[in-house]
Write a structure and sequence with these properties.
The protein is of the alpha/beta class and 246 residues long. The protein has a single domain, classed as NAD(P)-binding Rossmann-like Domain (Rossmann fold). The chain has helices at 14-25, 41-50, 65-78, 102-130, 141-145, 151-171, 189-192, 196-205, 214-224, and strands spanning 5-9, 29-34, 56-59, 84-87, 133-138, 176-183, 236-239. 42% of the residues are buried.
Length: 246
């Protein structure tokens, strides 16, 4: 496999970490990007090195355009042009709509949707110039079907799907594919830390009666980033154990 530079945002989270690991196993140089000043960054880097992964760590606030532009420029200088971009960064600020304030709306829209513009805007034209690129946007089951109590999150993740389709059309003749992955409930540390009875109710609501594995998300990203996936663009790949089919 050709070694390429892969940039993953939200890299220090559960799914982000596994995406980084799976891309590295596939032979790519992985840039793990997350917020500046994260307290657990050094521990995360040490943990990854102990597991055999030597990632280049980059910092940017994905909600701020200039921060993203500076990060990309530094990565290009230190590592090389970005060939594979995984827009994975995301947050939640859950409340039922009457109790959701504007700050909660703005935070989620900025981090989960505006970030796609902020990170991709500098990278995608250069992919097009080189005639090859892979952009993978991590959406969500709740962006596909909606979810009560997550108006902001569902709107942002649904917007991710529109962004994916439109950008795919713009880049379709340039050798650059743009696809979305919409995970359901995945067995990250955060999900597994949910109170046992609540977690069991969630598991029972999944037709497959199990949570997804982070490695299954990572493996899907590796495939979408490969030459073999060159005929797939503008697609939303649902990976949710049968909770929603479309």
């Amino acid at each position: 496999m050709t070694t390429r530079v892969a940039l993953v945002t939200g890299a220090l989270g559960g799914i982000g970490t596994t995406i980084c690991q799976e891309l590295a196993k596939a032979g790519h140089k992985v840039v793990a990007a997350d917020l500046p000043g994260l307290q657990h960054k050094d521990a995360w880097v040490a943990e990854q090195k102990a597991a055999g992964f030597d990632f280049y760590v980059a910092e940017a606030n994905v909600a701020e355009y200039d921060s993203c532009k500076a990060m990309v420029e530094k990565v290009e200088k230190d590592i090389g042009p970005v060939d594979i971009l995984v827009n994975n960064a995301g947050i939640t600020r859950d409340k039922f709509f009457p109790k959701m304030d504007r700050a909660m709306w703005d935070a989620v829209i900025s981090t989960n949707l505006t970030s796609l513009f902020n990170v991709t805007h500098t990278i995608s034209p250069k992919m097009a110039e080189r005639g090859w690129g892979r952009i993978i946007n991590i959406s969500s089951l709740n962006g596909v079907r909606g979810q009560a109590g997550q108006i902001n999150y569902s709107a942002a993740k649904a917007g991710c799907l529109g962004f994916t389709k439109a950008l795919a059309l713009e880049l379709v003749e340039k050798g650059v594919t743009v696809n979305a992955v919409a995970p359901g409930y995945i067995a990250t540390k955060m999900v597994m830390a949910i109170r046992d009875d609540i977690r069991e109710n969630i598991r029972n609501s999944i037709p497959m009666k199990r949570f997804g594995k982070p490695e299954e998300i990572g493996a899907l990203c590796v495939y979408l980033a490969s030459d073999l996936a060159g005929f797939i663009t503008g697609a939303t790949i649902n990976i949710n154990g049968g909770m929603h089919m479309c």
